[in-house]
Amino acid sequence: MNCLNCGAQIVNNLKVKEIFLFKEIIPDYICNLCRSQLAPLTGRNNCPRCFKTDVNGICYDCQVWEQKHNTINCHEALFEYNQFIHSYFKLYKRYGDVLLAKLFYRDIKKWSLQNKFDVVTYIPASKNHLQARGFDPVYELYSDIFDLKRLLNKIDADKPQAQKNRLERLQTPQTFSILPEINNFQKNQKILIVDDIYTTGRTLMHAHDIFFEAGFKNICTFSLSR
Ligand SMILES: [Zn+2]
Ligand SMILES: [Zn+2]
Question: Which CATH number characterizes residue 56's domain?
Answer without folding.
Answer: 3.40.50
